[in-house]
Amino acid sequence: MAIYITVLLALLNQIALKGSKMLIALYAIELGASPFSLGLLIATYACFPLLLAVYAGRASDRVGVRRPMVLGSIGTALGLLVPVAVPTLPALYASAALIGLSNVFFHVSAHNLVGSLGGGHERTRNFATFSLGAAVSGFVGPVVVGFVIDGSGYLQTYKLLACIGAVPGIVLFCFAGFIPVVVRTESGQRAGSMRELLGNRALGRAFVASGLIITGIELFNFYVPIYGRSIGLSASVIGIVLGMQAAAAFVVRLWMPWLSRRFGEERVLTSSLLVAGLTYFLFPSFQDPVVLAGLSFVLGLGLGCGQPLSIILTYNNSPAGRIGESLGFRLTVNKFTQMTIPIAFGSLGAAFGIYPVFWGTACLLIVGGSISAGSASLRPPE
Length: 382
What we know:
Layout: H1 2-30, H2 35-63, H3 66-85, H4 89-116, H5 121-152, H6 154-174, H7 182-185, H8 194-198, H9 201-230, H10 235-254, H11 256-263, H12 265-282, H13 289-303, H14 306-316, H15 323-352, H16 355-376
Helix pairs in contact: 1-3, 1-4, 1-5, 1-6, 1-9, 2-4, 2-15, 3-4, 3-6, 4-5, 4-15, 5-6, 5-10, 5-14, 9-10, 9-12, 9-14, 9-15, 9-16, 10-13, 11-12, 12-13, 12-14, 12-16, 15-16
């Protein structure tokens, strides 16, 4: 029962987070943001997590997961209310920064909690269940946001997401009996330096793959609304296109345990990067919403296994007593790519348009998949 409560709370948090990214992109366009400004806005989500992800992981190791998750949930809700109070472009930057800061504490602690609810194959099943919840949130968030924008406007959508985002914090504040004691007591077993984590080759491979996969997912969630607006799609249609990526992720994650056993976790990660890269390359060549939805589905098949597998590899290869810290460092790598690449691609988009953004991302994913293929081919599946 504990894993399902955790997944439900994380699902609500991720609906608020993922819905906000589509909402903030479309609202920024409505307020007249340039492509470079949009790149900066995307990067703002990752600014504080880049600096504080390792600290958030250590906090979850030392003080438990409840307090970071409560603060993260309430902070996310407050961040979503900033544009309601001050509906201007600068307020969107403040909103993105507060949501990103709050989410890093919720995000790392939730992963630490899921990993503590079982060991071995049970842990893999728990992470697979957790990833299914993340896929559901990736579908529900954009679709709901799209229809609410078309029906009620941007500010009402912000209010709705704020209400959804506050629910996990309220539940955890009032009821936390499902959280096991082991999350609190495991932390004191050992300490070590960051060099130890960086010197762990298995962890390093998981960090790099995770950074590339999250780059593909995040840029897709931001730039598809921009591209959709440029070709005249409504917010609800854009939401459906984005939702198809999450729907495919849900489907492929049902098969994730079998794929991992059959081909090995690193081979599945490699395939994810290559398929996603090819999909990114094709996406801006089409304008028909049905075709775009189909390509979004293929992208979801490509990246759907990658993110949970990178979490599992990070958890399983972490030094004893430093699991939250390792998960935090993984998130630091993710946020570094989320902050630097959108700024670079925002400049590229300002100079040459939206198409090179998709093609540049495709090249990153394909090159990363090719490098990963070289290392994965040397190791048979376990």
